[in-house]
Design brief:
Alkaline Phosphatase, subunit A, about 450 residues, alpha/beta, Arylsulfatase, C-terminal domain, four-stranded antiparallel sheet, ten-stranded mixed sheet, 12 helices
Length: about 450
């Protein structure tokens, strides 16, 4: 390396260290398909989730938080970019086979970890990626210094870690074949990372994105956790018992990670986010509280997300907010907290005023949900929902008429409002504006489908 290059690299490192001083560590936990009613803190009477419940009490709980989509990949794209999923190039689920793949993460978009690196953060992703199998969209290429997890979508088996017969577990670029339940592996790998940061001479803050596959199908809890649930809950069905056990097992793993965070002394300066990528899958026993529908649907049961943010000495413990927010807002929030000036457009809105106990009025903004999907039910077409204030216009496939609901009067979405054509027209017009914007992102041109 030439002397001038060494000097430049040293100066860049020095600037990053200076920028990083005083910034919090970030632990961002995203779980998969957790129903809005599937925590004991959210009304479940047959389920015990003490660790997540404790998190909900230690910071601010969001009572009206939404995922950006009723399925996995699009919400994760929003989390990584702060953009609407279709703007990020991921209108639907990223899959192994090109003919059934419905997204390609926009290579032009800066990601959250890449931006955090510019102000000195060490960035790590443990767990489920689900945003591309190509080399250019590998986590190490999209801003993560360290990746230890699963590149693909769902696992066909929590112990074999394969999808369509292919192994997708990686340690950075290396194909690995670990043994054990995926939830335990992700817990242990996250704990190892936290220990390494506590011992490191590099005292820059870290960003750890921990994404569990649980409680996504297959509903495959360890036997001892299932036996414990069946012994405790005498009248529980086999289907429900398996899901409860899988969630409780995940809760136990989250508890272990949080204990490591505390034991290492890192918790004092660590902001923790807990959220889910969409609602619970009803046909495997998932429950979404009072809300209609579930995963894959635009009814609130499919997009409501159990979410809280904990930040010691900065967010009032046991606080709650009714502000309507969604995944991409967390990205905007973290960028502001990290002091990053964003020079490109993002769709998320920072929730820092809300987290700081200040009033934040977001009732006038329009929120759009969309999903593109194949198979006989969806036929490669997109379906949508849009909300402003109390009004929501929605459908669950592209072949349904849009239905209008007033969520303040009818949170269960049971009574379609048919005498408010002016509101319906206004929401439709705003939705069409969004569709025009998203049409500029040619994600399909990056794929070769026979």
């Amino acid at each position: 390396m030439k002397p001038i290059q060494s000097i430049i690299l040293f100066c860049v490192a020095l600037i990053q260290v200076t920028l990083a001083v005083g910034k919090p560590n970030i632990l961002y936990i995203m779980v998969d398909d957790l129903g809005f009613g599937d925590l004991s803190s959210h009304g479940a009477t047959d389920l015990k989730s003490p660790n997540i419940d404790k998190l909900m009490k230690e910071g601010m709980r969001f009572d009206n938080f939404y995922a950006n989509c009723p399925v996995c990949s699009p919400t994760r794209a929003a989390a990584m970019t702060g953009r609407y999923p279709d703007i990020a190039g991921v209108p639907g689920v990223v899959r192994t086979h090109e003919s059934n793949n419905w997204g390609y993460l926009n290579p032009k978009l800066p990601t959250l970890p890449a931006l955090l690196k510019t102000v000195g953060y060490h960035t790590a992703h443990v767990g489920k990626w689900h945003l591309g199998l190509e080399q250019e969209n590998h986590p190490n290429k999209r801003g993560f210094d360290h990746f230890h997890g699963f590149l693909g979508d769902m696992m066909d088996d929590y112990y074999k870690h394969t999808r369509h017969g292919q192994h997708y577990m990686r340690l950075n670029q290396n194909d690995i074949r670990p043994k054990g339940h995926a939830t335990d592996l992700f817990t242990d790998w996250s704990s190892d990372y936290l220990h390494s940061r506590a011992k490191s001479k590099d005292k820059n803050p870290f960003f750890l994105y921990l994404a569990y596959n649980a409680p996504h199908t297959p509903i495959q809890p360890p036997k001892d956790w299932l036996d414990k649930v069946k012994t405790r809950e005498k009248d529980i069905s086999d289907q429900r018992a398996r899901l409860v056990a899988l969630i409780e097992h995940m809760d136990g793993g989250i508890g272990k990670v949080l204990r490591v965070l505390k034991e290492t002394g890192l918790s004092k300066n660590t902001l923790v986010i807990f959220t889910s990528d969409n609602g619970g899958q009803v046909n495997v026993g998932g429950r979404n509280g009072i809300y209609k529908g579930g995963k894959q649907e635009m009814d609130d049961g499919g997009i409501r997300s159990t979410t809280c943010v904990v930040w010691p000495s900065r967010i009032k413990p046991d606080s709650r907010t009714s502000v309507v927010a969604l995944t991409m807002d967390l990205t905007a929030t973290l960028l502001e907290i990290a002091g990053i000036k964003v020079n490109h457009k993002i769709d998320g809105i920072s929730l820092l005023p809300t987290l700081s106990g200040k009033k934040q009025d977001l009732t006038q903004r329009y929120i759009v949900w969309m999903r593109l999907e194949g198979n006989a039910k969806y036929q490669g077409r997109t379906y949508y929902a849009i909300r402003q204030g109390d009004w929501k216009l929605t459908q669950n496939t592209a072949f349904e008429n849009m239905r209008l609901y007033n969520l303040s009067k009818d949170p269960k979405e049971t009574i379609e409002v048919k005498n408010a054509q002016g509101i319906k027209r206004k929401l439709t017009n705003e939705l069409m504006k969004h569709i025009h914007r998203a049409g500029e992102i040619p994600w399909q041109g990056t794929r070769n489908v026979d």
